[in-house]
């Protein structure tokens, strides 16, 4: 059993790495830069080798470590255990927090979490121009990944006002090691003692003579999930599924859906993202916002058969930033690699099926990462959520009824309500009224209720 350091003693990279992983087995990946080089070298090692590895790389800059553990290199297919919940606060991207101290940002984060009745993190650390909040959990298996991601996404939305990074939800995410130098700022990530003091005081009051007890323990994932999200769907009594429609009763696909392809979808995505940039920022995209917009644009272009993503992107963004083609290529390296693998004929397997190794963007992901509001979705072609989809469906049906000379739903409901009330006053029962008016008995009950809801 590894003798874990207490929070007050986490000052060196090895202390932090052991605090994260020292109790368990498996593999973690280290990343590091040497002499300020842009490229990062990666080294996957067993957890038991952490002290030796960090002694070997003690002179390297920008040392990072995976937060989860794997059965080999840091890839989702090799995931062994999910080890923590986290939020990466890039508060420097928010104008109101650019000059704030880490202590002030942490105080605001505690205030937001407390107001949302979310447990405070186990750990808070600086990371140059940002901050990491971590909730340590008892390791859970990869089968829990969707639930794990839902918890992180909810925390990200809760702390979005502090610049919570929407892309920091992947299982292979790395965090800077406490005590390792950040080459961009020259600072070393450090533990923020306010969180430590808060929890040590709480646990000392609850368990006398056990001030460091909390740091030696971890959250049960389901308890933390319940505290953050409430009751999970898996805890509910399963409901009977409705009967599937037979081919003869299915509606024919509209023309626009029959003409829908992957290419037309991502053309619309790229158009919507560019429209959003121009609407929000005009002709120049701020430095702190470029990575997330340009990465998503690059992903969209990777599905349109572009061989050189950086060159194609340069034409799209030349009026929005001063980035040249080389800078774009560095920022979009992950996207470019997926295109190269795709061109080489490589595939990835998911649930027994083979797919191209390209990033895919769901509307939910795009809305979440770009914080697209309901009003902004009204101006979008394809990046819309369920509410906007239902609103458009109602409008389409309304126009279709008007085109065929049918009354609107409101007018039909008003006519039904008047007829139902008249027949009810004459003493007819609900079943008879339903047959007479041509509606269901449930609708009759609703129309006779005080609210008159249809």
TrEMBL record:
Name the segments for region: Disordered: 235-254, 381-419
Task: Specify the domain of life of the species encoding this protein.
Answer: Bacteria
Q: Which spans does this entry mark as compositional bias, Polar residues? A: 237-246
Q: Where is the composition biased (Basic residues)?
A: 391-406
What name does this protein carry? Replication protein
């Amino acid at each position: 059993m590894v003798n874990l350091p207490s929070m007050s003693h986490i000052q060196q990279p090895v202390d932090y790495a052991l605090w994260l992983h020292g109790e368990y087995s498996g593999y973690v990946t280290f990343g590091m830069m040497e002499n300020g080089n842009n490229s990062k070298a990666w080294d996957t090692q067993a957890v038991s080798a952490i002290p030796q590895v960090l002694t070997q790389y003690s002179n390297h800059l920008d040392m990072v470590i995976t937060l989860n553990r794997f059965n080999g290199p840091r890839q989702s297919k090799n995931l062994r255990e999910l080890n923590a919940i986290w939020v990466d606060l890039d508060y420097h991207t928010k104008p109101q927090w650019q000059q704030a101290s880490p202590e002030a940002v942490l105080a605001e984060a505690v205030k937001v979490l407390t107001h949302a009745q979310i447990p405070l993190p186990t750990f808070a650390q600086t990371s140059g121009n940002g901050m990491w909040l971590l909730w340590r959990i008892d390791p859970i298996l990869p089968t829990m990944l969707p639930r794990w991601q839902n918890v992180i996404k909810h925390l990200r939305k809760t702390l979005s006002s502090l610049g919570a990074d929407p892309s920091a939800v992947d299982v292979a995410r790395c965090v800077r090691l406490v005590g390792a130098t950040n080459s961009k700022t020259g600072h070393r990530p450090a533990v923020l003692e306010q969180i430590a003091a808060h929890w040590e005081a709480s646990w000392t009051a609850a368990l006398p003579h056990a001030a460091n007890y909390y740091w030696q323990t971890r959250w049960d994932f389901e308890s933390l999930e319940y505290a953050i999200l409430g009751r999970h769907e898996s805890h509910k009594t399963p409901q009977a599924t409705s009967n599937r429609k037979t081919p003869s009763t299915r509606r024919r696909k509209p023309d626009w859906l029959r003409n829908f392809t992957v290419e037309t979808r991502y053309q619309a995505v790229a158009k919507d993202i560019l429209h959003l940039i121009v609407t929000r920022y005009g002709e120049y995209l701020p430095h702190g916002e470029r990575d997330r917009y340009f990465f998503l644009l690059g992903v969209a272009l990777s599905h349109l058969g572009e061989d050189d993503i950086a060159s194609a992107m340069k034409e799209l963004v030349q009026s929005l930033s001063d980035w040249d083609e080389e800078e774009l290529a560095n920022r979009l390296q992950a996207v470019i690699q997926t295109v190269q693998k795709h061109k080489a004929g490589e595939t990835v397997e998911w649930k027994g099926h083979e797919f191209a190794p390209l990033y895919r963007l769901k509307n939910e992901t795009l809305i979440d990462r770009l914080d697209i509001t309901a009003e902004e979705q009204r101006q979008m072609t394809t990046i819309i959520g369920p509410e906007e989809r239902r609103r458009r469906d109602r409008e389409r049906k309304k126009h279709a009824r008007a085109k065929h000379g049918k009354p609107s739903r409101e007018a039909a409901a008003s006519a039904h309500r008047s007829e139902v009330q008249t027949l009810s006053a004459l003493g007819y029962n609900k079943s008879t009224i339903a047959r007479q008016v041509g509606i269901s008995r449930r609708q009759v009950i609703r129309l006779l209720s005080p609210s008159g809801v249809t």
